[in-house]
Design brief:
It is built from 17 helices and 16 strands. By secondary structure, the chain is α/β, with parallel strands linked by helices. The chain has 2 domains: 3-246, Spore Coat Polysaccharide Biosynthesis Protein SpsA, Chain A, CATH 3.90.550.10; 252-459, Rossmann fold (3-Layer(aba) Sandwich), CATH 3.40.50. The radius of gyration is 25 Å and the shape is globular. The chain starts with a strand and ends with a strand.
């Protein structure tokens, strides 16, 4: 089996040399290396012309990430295509795990390695202890990390294009990169979504490590990265009909609080299935999803075995229609409902005894709300505790009113936000002033710096 590795260059000769040299040194499988140069002017062109083992396409202008990779796709001869940024350095044994995982199932369309860089998918980033500037210690780190995670991978909804392995036959089915994204950003996300909507899976391969310096071309080309991101994000969301990145990653706090001995889970407001997929990765449980958004549910239905297209306030919540569960998740949904109290009561009836209800809910006793009220405002927004779609509002004190007597709250975990020092001083003064006048403000700082509460409640009586 042959692999076609595609690398785009636009100046940054030093990084390009490191990338190519690492590929030559650490790639033992049969491969071809295709370079597409986007009008470099720093000696990159002369360097590439002297390399006899490369297939090179020279462009007279910077045609961008999508078009450059698509040009290379016209001449690839491999069964596997790996898209690499020129500011990466591969490590020993990097390619074999990517390919082995890629062909471990017909369902898998793409695989990606773990990496060091903060700018990529949070699920692909790992903590590293080598020098990320000089790369001193990278070989030993990679060797040890990959040895601890041999044959391990996890299913996700997003892989980043800095190092992306794809089956060529899948690319022939879903199409190549969308060139309307121009210079770069979001074309890799778009490619992933086209794979997902066809029912394919994406996997992070934990025993493949690739170092990524990150955004080198953008930085040195003086491209307005923030403007480009906003422009392409708008284009991306318009193409797919919803704010995609809101649904791509599971909430890490929800995962951490989940009981481990569960076999059947109901995920209300399941989105594209990110949380359900991570639960399956970690616990191997059966997850049933409920989602009402027409655009979002298309992805969940392709990724999960059972997804119900319903509004939780209109569906019949009974054991006959939905069955029984070990755990039910209400992820950022209750504040959107007309009568969350009744819904929670009905959901508790679907739990086995000692089953859990996990709730993530916004805190209205929040700094953003307090500072608005102090200035005479209550401004609804698109996100946060003042989301214009919220119908009900809760604080740490009023959250317990949601639960019927058969449910015992075991944990209420605050999810804090960062607070600037000046605001901290302001809050401290309010606390002191409140105490002076007999108000219960001892816990005010913790409460108003809490963006959301995570609640874990257990059913102690089977009614």
């Amino acid at each position: 089996m042959k692999t076609s590795i595609i690398v785009l260059t636009h100046n940054q000769l030093t990084y390009t040399k490191k990338c190519i040299e690492s590929i030559r040194k650490y790639t033992s499988l049969d491969y071809e290396l295709i370079i597409v140069d986007n009008a470099s002017q720093d000696g990159t062109v002369d360097y590439l012309k002297k390399q006899s083992d490369l297939l090179v396409i020279f462009n007279k202008e910077n045609v961008g990430f999508a078009k450059g990779n698509n040009q290379a796709m016209r001449i690839v001869s491999g069964d596997v295509v790996v898209f690499l940024n020129n500011d990466v350095v591969v490590t020993a044994g990097w390619l074999e795990p990517l390919i082995n995982t890629l062909f471990s199932s017909k369902k898998i369309a793409m695989t990606g390695p773990v990496t060091n860089n903060d700018n990529v998918n949070g699920l692909q980033k790992i903590q590293v202890d080598y020098n990320q500037d000089t790369l001193e210690g990278i070989s030993e780190f990679s060797k040890q990390y990959c040895a601890k995670h041999v044959h391990m991978s996890k299913r996700v909804l997003r892989l980043v294009g800095f190092a992306l392995a794809c089956k060529k036959e899948v690319l022939n089915t879903i199409g190549l990169f969308d060139e309307s994204f121009g210079i770069g950003n979001y074309e890799d996300d778009d490619l992933c979504l086209r794979a997902l909507i066809k029912g394919y899976e994406l996997r992070i391969v934990k025993d493949s490590f690739v170092h990524h310096f990150g955004r080198i071309t953008f930085k040195e080309s003086k491209i307005n990265y923030s403007h480009l991101m906003i422009k392409n994000k708008t284009k991306f969301n318009k193409k797919w009909g919803f704010d995609v990145h809101k649904y791509l990653h599971p909430h890490s706090n929800l995962i951490a609080i989940m009981p481990k001995s569960i076999s059947r889970v109901l995920d209300i407001n399941c989105g594209m299935g990110a949380l359900a997929i991570e639960l399956i990765n970690q616990i191997e449980c059966k997850v049933v999803g409920i989602e009402k958004n027409d655009q979002v549910i298309r992805f969940a239905q392709k990724q999960l075995s059972q997804v119900l297209h319903h509004d939780v306030e209109t569906i019949e919540i009974s054991e006959d229609t939905l069955g029984k569960y070990d755990c039910i998740i209400c992820n950022d949904i209750l504040q959107h409902l007309k009568d969350p109290w009744t819904i929670v009561k009905q959901l508790s009836g679907l739990l086995h005894k000692d089953g859990y209800l996990i709730i993530l809910i916004h805190n209205v006793n929040h700094l953003e709300v307090m500072t608005e009220l102090l200035q005479g405002y209550f401004s609804y927004k698109n996100v946060g505790p003042l989301n214009k779609q919220h119908l009900r509002f809760f604080t740490k004190t009023t959250i317990p009113t949601l639960f019927p007597p058969e449910m015992l709250i075991e944990k209420i975990i605050p999810i804090h936000m960062h607070v600037p020092d000046k605001i901290m001083e302001f809050v401290d003064e309010i606390v002191e002033l409140g105490q002076k006048y007999g108000l219960k403000t001892n816990d005010l700082f913790d409460d108003i710096t809490t963006n959301q509460f995570l609640i874990k409640a257990r059913k102690i009586v089977d009614i």
